[in-house]
């Protein structure tokens, strides 16, 4: 009996899309392979080291204690940076560290750590930690699966890896599967949204699993009404796009706030976990009516492609938020977040943003607003622009573009409230400069919705049109050699994009050079006549030996004076990275456990006891009491300082006339060597601005940590000047 060997057996053809079209270009013939194994995980363990070309088709695990005790890393084709990095359970969509535990811990905590059901084409979760992922993961040369257990306790794991091997066939698939997990607790309240993803293209967004653990009563901070997914696509590319969500519950297929929702799991979006975590607790209004939930969204039929880059954020109040994001990219992974060590990954610990990694530079802008509609003011020219001078009563603020996008909703937001995706009906102005190597033609690609006006150098302002939803347009311009100035006015109305108040800008010369927008801030003369310069943009700065900075680093409420109140952010710490003549400096503000940080932007002070300090008092950070009898403490940390002698000058006051005089105690040390560098006590009165000077010796690589502690009244830090080698 003879057998015929077919060249391309139909049963082995892997090219068909099956249930879901992944858009992958895989070879025709697949040979099925499998690894199945159980073992104890201590330290770093390799689960599989596969040789390609091939494609992972299924990855399944089970066991106890496989929550955030374990970190999963998957690396393709020998790259130095893992394509996948996430806590093992979070990779499978099981958030909040809810995987079941073993032994006595299981008997004690199984109710609190019981995983929920997932039933999607991509992720499946069944009782007793049965987790499965069906993402195709192609690789040309190799695929390495490893798990790291840094908890100090061994974990038993049972797993499958099923993959296709493509023998002796042409490989022509550049995309690689990627996934990252990030957690922020708490998210800055109603500011620049929860940051989820930043990736290079070309690629495709697959989806994400998103979790929220409410820290405050829903009547104070409703989880669903701070906005939804905001997807910024190809801001530095030819065809930019911006997708703005509405309410958070709509993203996951729910409606009407999702306050009472029966957990379930459907194909592409849903809320599989939704609990009232403190039902019946009436001790404190702040700590009742809080939900803990998980939602997911997969972009299947409405595929989201990107060519240059993608940036993803999710509107949030000051809650504990985490997400695992999945995507494909043809470029090596560029990390945007570090994995926190154990136990800092666990619920209850508040990492803030200290594990974030800086994003690629796509330019800096000055922004000013909000202005009422219709906007009638002229756009600034090179000759009449001064960042120290307000425009129609509004101060200028700097903004670092996110992959070519300037989102004005991150700068000019209404006061935090439970309004549904609140946004202002207003206008704002943005201004930058950029340098052309020679006089030349260039194309400015702008994306926006609503009405946009552009002014280049000293030319006439151009109305570029009104888009009801986000669209783009190419503008052909002539640049002069050297510095060029660009000003933009953008209006904001609800329209068809629910108040999408963002624009993208990419400037490309006829020679193909991309010119990044930048800003340069020249501070007022210091008392000794030394001009201190802050360069917040790309490029080299003038060789000055000091810098001046205003705090807070984040603008909170543009309408604080219209509303007649300051806005407190229950959030700590806050960080901002500045490019200065001393090099890159990271500025971090934090508060003690019994204290909240309140950020406020001021209009210029024109009357009263603080008139002489108008420039300094334009912004302030307050330290406010939460527990009586304990000192209010605010800390300022500066990282990245080179070695040398420094003079730190700080300005303070008590934040209202109703406050009693108080003593402000200042102490500082280096966190790395723990030696004390300053100690001072000074009296503060409501009508007095206090100026303090400290001489500091910093060794290379050290950080500067200064704590301001007030016993009797909330203290305000208005600004500081740091200079190297200046008396």
Structure notes:
Helix content is about 5%, strand content about 45%. The chain is built from four helices and 45 strands. The strands form seven sheets. Strands 2, 4, 5, 10, 12, 14, 17, 18, 19 and 21 form a ten-stranded mixed beta sheet that branches. Strands 22, 23, 24, 25, 26, 27, 28, 29 and 30 form a nine-stranded antiparallel beta sheet that branches. Strands 1, 3, 6, 7, 8, 9 and 11 form a seven-stranded antiparallel beta sheet that branches. The radius of gyration is 27 Å and the shape is globular. The N and C termini lie far apart (about 100 Å). The model is unreliable at about 1-20, about 105-110, about 525-570 and about 615-620 (pLDDT under 50).
List the SSEs and their pairings.
Layout: E1 31-41, E2 43-51, E3 54-63, E4 70-76, E5 84-87, H1 88-91, H2 103-109, E6 118-119, E7 123-126, E8 130-133, E9 137-139, E10 142-149, E11 155-165, E12 176-184, E13 194-200, E14 203-213, E15 229-233, E16 241-244, H3 248-251, E17 269-276, E18 291-298, E19 304-306, E20 309-314, E21 320-329, E22 364-371, E23 396-400, E24 405-407, E25 426-436, E26 440-456, E27 462-479, E28 482-492, E29 502-509, E30 514-515, E31 520-522, E32 533-535, E33 546-550, H4 560-563, E34 567-569, E35 574-580, E36 583-591, E37 595-601, E38 619-625, E39 632-639, E40 644-654, E41 662-669, E42 676-684, E43 690-698, E44 704-710, E45 715-724
Parallel strand pairs: 5-12
Antiparallel strand pairs: 1-11, 2-10, 3-8, 3-9, 3-11, 4-5, 4-10, 6-7, 7-8, 12-21, 13-20, 14-18, 14-19, 14-21, 15-16, 15-20, 17-18, 22-23, 22-25, 24-29, 25-28, 26-27, 26-28, 26-29, 29-30, 31-32, 33-45, 34-37, 35-36, 36-39, 37-38, 38-45, 39-44, 40-43, 40-45, 41-42, 41-44
